[in-house]
Amino acid sequence: MAKGKAVVVGGLGMIGRNIIQALEAEGGWEIVGLSRRPANFETKATFISVDLLDNAQAREKLSGLTDVTHIFYAGLSGGVEAENVEGNLALVVNSVGTIEPNSPTLERVILVQGGKYYGVHLGPHKTPSKETDPRHLPPNFYYNQQDFITELQEGKSWYYTMLRPEAVVGFAEGIPLNTASLVAVYATVCREMDVPLNYPGPEAAFTAFNKFVDARLLGRCAAWAAQNPACAGEAFNVTNASGMRWCNLWPMFTEYFGCRPGVLVPMSLADFMADKGPVWDEIARKHQLKTMAFSDLGDWGFADWNFGRTWDTILEDTKRLQYGFTEAIDTDQNFIEIFDDMRAARVIPAG
Questions:
Q1: I need a surface site. Which of 55, 80, 182, 273 has the fewest CB within 10 A?
Q2: Distances (CA, A) of 236 to 2, 229, 246
Q3: By C-alpha distance, which of 190, 242, 234 is closest to 211?
Q4: Domain housing 22
Q5: Domain-located, residue 59
Q6: Are 295 and 173 in contact (CB under 8 A)?
Q7: How many CB atoms lie within 10 A of CB 20?
Q8: pLDDT tens-digit profile of 175-201?
Q9: From CA 111, how far away is CA 96, in angstroms rounded?
Q10: Residue 35 near residue 43, CB atoms below 8 Å
Q11: Which 3 state secondary structure label does DSSP give 110?
């Protein structure tokens, strides 16, 4: 029996493609991905190439979507800054706001948010963060997106569910906002140049407690939430349920990539990796790696934020566990599995 017709907004992103893969693994779904570029991974989903910042183009290209039952929103406009309201609101308005009036069969909208909902980007905040916590002083584009969806849903028969992951660990080609890729590329460059794998942040960041989330787990959680009647109108934090500190992971990274052990050397990777494109080109030539632009392998400003965050960031998972999504992943193993996937895809050297 068919489960429905799902539209995944941001289908090429790390979150979007893992939602697609989770739905395909379940079977029974007709899947449409929305992105600006064609699909660059193996999938049976149909992709519509559309610039969702262009309202007229969105209305033209999405007009044929008249039988959608589920919309999964995992888009991002420009950077991850919470104050980037205009572009990120436009993506929701031009996707969900365009499809919804033409699809009387709509049952559920899944809106993927993130830890910035709780102000994790601002500095020390209330931990553990819970779904009932109040908003911080805006701007925050997650608030604008949620308010739009809330108003759109009023008086309708469909419902929405919000998922709030923290930093997502996974790999997607061409997606530079990727913690695992940042570690892998930085470590590979250090090994190639025969320098220690120093931790590029302060001691407080090295020992801070965080909870990340595996992209595959998040995809499966989105598929679960879309089909669970009890999730209607609810918000759920989503992490691996396993915490981590960089100080515990760093020796494992050093061993995995065969690097010289390092120490704490606070530095800006945005500065120190800026000229390493030629080094990576040589690594790619030597190991016959897949040809990729160095800029697509990592956003080093994002790395500076990841490795420089000196406060704990703990999203409480209890609610999603109580509602029935009980999957957990060891974060140490999570990183190793993603590194292995990157090796298998010939994105980083095999050893």
A1: 55
A2: 26, 14, 25
A3: 242
A4: 4-168+214-238
A5: yes
A6: no
A7: 28
A8: 888 899 999 999 999 999 999 999 999
A9: 10
A10: no
A11: strand
